[in-house]
């Protein structure tokens, strides 16, 4: 149970503020996260990591000499936005390019990927790497779909040590990929975590049972077993991790490995040591030499009572990178040569861009859009708990919270844009950016795409016609599929967005006014959302728990259907347009 908080919505920001206050000689806060407080050699590759909050010491606690150059810090269990990642990367880089490294979660992949594209376009070469060490999250044949857990540390450290050694971006990326390919983790848990402000855990495990194959977001496990003794737990962890050797390792015997026994939040250090005692014996018996083992909390999931084992099968190249000195708030090793502290300049003030000129017709359309965004926000607020419950069946339970953060940010940005006289396009573009930035996470990136596409179609001049609105929604569907890679049938919001766009396009092409066409399409959306209950998820956080999600609709599909239905009365009176 997370007991100490003020406003739950401010938890991640307040935790970051306190963290920075506690470590002024190692980290400094920048917009979007933290960077090293010490000076980095000019031209060194910057390793910028990041992810959601709730996983401390991942990710901010791993910033410091010998480890990451910066961390983009998202909200609780939600990836940081592309904007945040870009800001942190710009503050951290010293001319050698940037490697963006993160756990392979849908939201992180979308936001870090977008950030890399934007940085490169701005002249800062950037590469990405999603860590995939959790063997329970996908089969070996689909290793690229696996999620990142405590193996994050090994990969971040290898990359950072390679950067400190003066390698260029291509080489640092190759080394990080090698470390990732040779790292495997597996976890178990005895109880789930409770998010700040929530009154129940994201999942529960029966008193005498242990969940196996756990991630770091309170996702349910892949299976259950009776609670073992410490030795039995060690035997399960070791046999499972040794059961899937990476390419190039034919047998454990004679191998050297970086070993992490990771506590996920509320397993005591002494318990971890009791388990590690047997892990060490078993590795020794298998002929594996544990190099600089770590026993402690390296990547957590709030108060989840769980433990995971990570092995990175070292090579001659990886071993010195693993044993190299580091000095981060939550990870210190050996002695680093202390670099100079950066004396902070004045914080940069964000400058508000003026809005481009718009016609009165477009400003009138913008006022309608603003009213729709107000309704959207209140719909999300009303249904936030329900959306969280649906998401918790097979995901991480944060869909309602993420949608609230995004829709509130979008509405506030739209209010400001309307005050400045924005047309429909500019108002929606500002709302889109604010949604992606405030929400982070998968749905944050995708809703940013949706609002932006509709805004582009509406433009800042003229009065939007019904086919133009329909074309904007169709472009939104195409954009979401392009960015997220999901298709109809994968059990995502795409299963609603595509039929909704199709129905709107057909009805408006028939010459129906928008209000009638929207009504028909909203009914199509509701039916499509309900039908996702029969699908097995193939994308996103719910994918590893496919069977559990049968019978429950997809959270993102459901929220989209609720929203398009709720905004209909707002659009109806003002948009009798054809
Ligand atoms: N690749 C994808 N393409 C389209 N939608 C996706 C994709 N992956 C996940 N989603 C949608 O995102 C929703 C989850 O949103 P959110 O809770 O913000 O995500 P997370 O916590 O997984 O980052 C899912 O219910 C699904 O509708
Ligand atoms: O906490 C995390 C959330 O990832 P999403 O894909 O946004 O759900 C992740 O950043 C941990 O690495």
TrEMBL record:
Signal peptide: none annotated. It comes from the Bacteria. Keywords: ATP-binding, Kinase, Nucleotide-binding, Transferase. Transmembrane segments: none annotated. The keyword Ion transport does not apply. GO terms for molecular function: kinase activity. InterPro entries: DhaK_dom (IPR004006), DhaL_dom (IPR004007), DhaL_dom_sf (IPR036117), Dihydroxyacetone_Kinase (IPR050861). SUPFAM superfamilies: DAK1/DegV-like (SSF82549), DhaL-like (SSF101473). The keyword Membrane does not apply. Residues 7-331 form the DhaK domain. It holds the Pfam family Dak2. Residues 367-569 form the DhaL domain. This is Dihydroxyacetone kinase family protein.
């Amino acid at each position: 149970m997370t007991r100490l908080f003020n406003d739950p919505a401010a938890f991640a920001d307040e935790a970051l503020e306190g963290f920075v206050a506690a470590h002024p000689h190692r980290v400094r806060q920048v917009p979007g996260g933290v960077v090293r407080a010490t000076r980095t050699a000019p031209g060194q590759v910057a390793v910028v990591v990041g992810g959601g909050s709730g996983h401390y010491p991942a990710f901010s606690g791993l910033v410091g000499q010998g480890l990451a150059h910066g961390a983009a810090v998202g909200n609780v269990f939600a990836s940081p936005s592309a904007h945040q990642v870009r800001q942190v990367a710009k503050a951290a880089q010293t001319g050698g390019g940037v490697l963006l490294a993160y756990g392979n979660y849908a939201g992180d992949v979308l936001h870090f990927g977008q950030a890399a594209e934007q940085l490169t376009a701005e002249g800062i070469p950037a590469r990405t790497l999603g860590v995939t060490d959790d063997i329970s999250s996908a089969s070996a044949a689909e290793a690229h779909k696996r999620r990142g857990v405590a193996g994050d540390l090994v990969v971040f450290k290898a990359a950072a040590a390679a950067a400190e050694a003066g390698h260029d971006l291509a080489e640092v990326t190759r080394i990080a990929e090698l470390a990732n390919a040779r790292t495997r983790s597996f976890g178990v848990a005895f109880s789930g975590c409770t998010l700040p402000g929530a009154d129940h855990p994201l999942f529960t495990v029966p008193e005498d049972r242990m969940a196996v194959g756990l991630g770091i977001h309170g996702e349910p496990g892949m299976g259950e077993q009776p609670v073992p003794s410490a030795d039995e737990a060690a035997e399960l962890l070791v046999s499972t991790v040794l059961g899937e050797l990476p390419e190039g390792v034919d047998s454990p015997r004679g191998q050297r490995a970086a070993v992490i026994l990771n506590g996920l939040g509320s397993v005591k250090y002494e318990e971890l040591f009791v388990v590690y005692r047997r892990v060490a014996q078993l590795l020794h018996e298998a002929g594996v030499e544990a190099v600089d083992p770590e026993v402690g909390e390296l990547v957590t999931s709030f108060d989840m009572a769980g433990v995971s084992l990570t092995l990175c099968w070292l090579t001659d190249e990886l071993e010195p990178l693993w044993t190299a000195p580091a000095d981060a708030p939550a990870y210190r090793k050996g002695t680093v040569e202390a670099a100079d502290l950066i004396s902070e300049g004045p914080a940069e003030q964000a400058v508000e861009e003026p809005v481009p000129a718009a016609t009165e017709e477009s400003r009138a359309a913008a006022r309608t859009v603003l009213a729709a965004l107000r309704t959207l926000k209140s719909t999300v607020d009303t249904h936030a708990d329900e959306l969280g419950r649906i998401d918790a069946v097979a995901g991480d339970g944060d869909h309602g919270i993420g949608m609230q953060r995004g829709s509130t940010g979008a509405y506030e940005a739209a209010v400001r844009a309307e005050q400045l006289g924005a047309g429909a396009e500019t108002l929606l573009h500002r709302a889109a950016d604010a949604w992606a930035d405030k929400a982070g996470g998968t749905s944050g990136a995708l809703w940013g795409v949706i609002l932006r596409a509709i805004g582009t179609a509406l433009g800042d001049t003229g009065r939007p016609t019904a086919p133009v609105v329909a074309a904007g929604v169709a472009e939104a569907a195409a954009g979401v599929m392009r960015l997220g890679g999901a298709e109809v049938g994968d059990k995502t919001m795409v299963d609603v967005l595509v039929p909704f766009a199709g129905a709107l396009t057909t009805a408006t092409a028939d010459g129906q006014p928008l209000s009638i066409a929207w009504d028909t399409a909203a009914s199509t959306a509701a039916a499509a959302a309900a039908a996702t209950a029969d699908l097995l998820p193939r994308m996103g956080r719910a994918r590893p728990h496919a069977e559990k999600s049968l019978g429950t609709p997809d959270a993102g599909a459901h929220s989209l259907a609720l929203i398009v239905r709720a905004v209909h009365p707002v659009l109806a009176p003002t948009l009798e347009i054809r």
